[in-house]
Amino acid sequence: MQKEKAGKKKQWSQTIFLIVILALPILNWLVFWLYINLNSILLAFQDRNANWTLQNFAEFWESLVEPVDYGGSVQLALLNTLKYFAVDLLVLLPLALILSYFMYKRIFGFRVFRVIFYLPVIISAVALTTVYKEFIDPNGPLGKICELFGITMPAEGLLARNGSATNMILIYHIWTGFGVNVLLLGGAMSRIPLDVLEAARLDGVGPGREIMEFILPLIWPTLSTMLIFQLTAVFTASGPILLFSPNGDYNTTTISFWIFKRVYGGGIVSTGVSAREINLVSCTGLCFTAIGVPLILGARKLLEKIPAVEY
After folding, report:
1. 59-304, CATH topology level
2. Assuming Cys at both sites, which of 65, 234, 282, 294 could form a disulfide with 44, CB separation 3.0 to 4.6 Å?
3. Is the dihedral of CA 288, 256, 240, 119 positive or negative?
4. Do 295 and 287 form a contact (C-beta atoms < 8 A)?
5. What string of H, E and C letters represents the secondary structure of the chain?
6. How far apart are CA 17 and CA 3, in angstroms?
7. Contact in structure between 45 and 52 (CB atoms under 8 Å)
8. Which of these ranges, 7-21, 30-44, 87-101, has the smallest mean pLDDT?
């Protein structure tokens, strides 16, 4: 009898301990995820006076389809966001895969290259953007190089022009974006059994075939996870806009930065925000979420159909 009571007391103690441990994260989820997201959804269907309306969706659609020159701010933000997403998915990830492969094959100086490509992650972003700005300045090294080839750079600089500002930030984004990808892919490749690649080499398999038929299937779990994470950022991809243009000038704004400016009240130099802006921002987020979630889930389902090689 005493043994049974002791067992029940121990069980109750474990239950109370679990409740206490889980109470804080559950409360955090209820307040900072569930409440905020439900409130955001409701705000999308309300005006500044909390009356139910669909006017927010009409304004969102007008800003999305209206030409950029006539105030299509959401359209411009969407186009720039898709540019960053395309660079991440179609440029940075493939190049990081190739770089990881060459470092995995232990080319001459591979340890030095590994440090070089990871340095942008360690060095302060403020320092890197300062160096980059000085380099592409009309009076900087890039300006001098252009003079040698008879090319005249605009006096205001490439970062102060509507047609070139976003492209220059994209170049900076590529320059500083290899670190984490190279680290993850290099770690996945380091786990590949050497016997497999040695056998392939004896059969006369070249580098291209080795990557496509051996490396990719063996690191597919890591690569597919990275692809899914990339797809989750299809409408949130953004470069270091704040470091280059605090107010998103020269057509550099993205969806994330557009939302930030609307909620913050017009950027760094402005203060205060109206309830009308909050309703429009909530509507914008809801619309892009409604498009993005099925897209991400569908892509995930397709990626999961590719069998992973166990080793």
Report:
1. MetI-like fold (1.10.3720)
2. 282
3. negative
4. no
5. CHHHHHHHHHHHHHHHHHHHHHHHHHHHHHHHHHHHHHHHHHHCCECCCCCECCHHHHHHHHHHHCCHHHCCHHHHHHHHHHHHHHHHHHHHHHHHHHHHHHHHCCCCCHHHHHHHHHHHHHCCHHHHHHHHHHHHCCCCHHHHHHHHCCCCCCCCCHHHCCCCHHHHHHHHHHHCCCHHHHHHHHHHHHCCCHHHHHHHHHCCCCHHHHHHHHHHHHCHHHHHHHHHHHHHCCCCCCCCHHHHCCCCCCCCCCHHHHHHHHHHCCCCCCCCCCHHHHHHHHHHHHHHHHHHHHHHHHHHHHHHCCCCCCC
6. 21
7. yes
8. 7-21
Q: Tokens 């047609």 — which residue?
A: 163
Query: What are the structure tokens assigned to 94, written together?
Result: 């493939």
Query: Are 158 and 73 in contact, with CB atoms under 8 Å apart?
Result: no
Residue 219: per-residue pLDDT: 92
Break the chain into its structural domains and give their ranges.
2-43, 59-304
Task: Give yes or no for residue 143 having a pLDDT over 50.
Answer: yes
Reported confidence tier of residue 268, pLDDT bands at 50, 70, 90: very low
How far, in Å, are 58, 255, 259, 291, 301 from residue 294 at the CA level? 23, 19, 22, 6, 10
CB of 63 closer than 8 Å to CB of 74: yes
C-alpha–C-alpha distance, residues 198 and 230, integer Å: 33
CB 93 within 8 A of CB 228: no
The half-sphere exposure of 111 on its side-chain side, counting CA atoms within 13 A, is 0
pTM exceeds cut of 0.70: yes
Contact 114, 103 (CB under 8 A): yes
- Cα 2 from Cα 177, distance rounded (Å): 64
CA distance 44 to 40: 6
